[in-house]
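Collaborator request, handled under Task 6.
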Amino acid sequence: MRQLTLSVLPVLIAVFIMIAGNGLFNTLVPFRATVEGFSPVMVGVIGSAYFFGMLAGTWAAPSIVRRAGHTRAFAAYSAVVSVAVLAFPIAVSPIPWMILRALVGFCFAGLYAVVESWISGKAGPAQRGRLLAIYNISNFAGSALGQQTLRFFEAKSDALFSAAASFMMLALVPMAMTKAEPPPLPPKGRLVIRKLWRVSPISLVTAILLGLANGTFWSIIPAYVQKLDLGPGTVASFMTFAIIGSALSPYPVGRLSDRFDRRKVIAGMSLAVMLPEIAMALIPAPQPFLLYTLGFLVGGLITVLYPLMTALSVDRLGPEKAVPVASTTLFIYCIGAIVGPTFVAWLMTALGDRMLFVHNALVHFTIITYALWRITREGPIPHGNKSQVDTGEERLVG
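Structure tokens returned to the collaborator:
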């Protein structure tokens, strides 16, 4: 694992820097939109626009990576997304922000496809869960760092957008300087939705449901905390606690999934995240200590499911399909993430802010139910988490 981690270290450093910018940006947009007086529904629509752009980006990413290669594609996406972020303070209005948010989503779909396929393609089934966990630690540690930038400038300061764009441009340095060999280019620039459905329906169902839950949480939670009116630093502190939880949890869960059936780990982690979500639904106005504690737990548990689902997908299709698998799972995820923020913002307006957590708890209950049902249909996987090539397709799909 040490040698494997060192081989992808430049990619992990680039992810850390890139997500420091994106973490700041993702919190800044709903936070600034609330300060500017945008309605809750409009905040949700802008959040959905990000995932609409990401949906289009996942469709295009395999072809772009195949044409340009991993490193050059990363550089192109980074340049475009930095310019888009700098354009936000130029036109503070819902329609331009929706368009720019969609463009940022398009670029990040490609960036995620590059780095996740690079990491998945370098690991075997016995290490994939842990290596993807290390990637997620780098991801969320960078995001935790980015949140703290909110403390140094006023909410209406354009410097916050400049700081986010600067992080994103700096991520080019380790990628441009690395001598590490990227994984093979995908043989075909297209998604593999049908094939993944045949060999791993749990992956696709989990992906769309995670889009509903995760996309809603990260798009709306800054506005939710801002409305609690607990002080100017509460949003930054809450997001930092949530992201620290996200950074600490992936490795032990990834190690667990390398030793045991990933399907059962997905069901178990879905059950674990339901408990703090139910607590947040039952406590409408938690005080800061309890708010940060629940944020730490929800943030730490809500994010471990995506790498588990990705690892399961690559196990079934093989590492040579890492780029189309990364793009396909993100494509399906984005469908849920487009619907989730707007739908939940409407629920919150009609029935109260706690509906954010009621909705997410029901989504995770659905993941548990479907995963357990598929396990009874598919039966045990021989030899742990070997790839689909090793275990036989007919046996897995029953």
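The cover message to the collaborator said: "The chain is about 80% helix and 0% strand. Residues 387-398 have pLDDT under 50 and may be disordered. Please let us know whether this matches your experimental observations."
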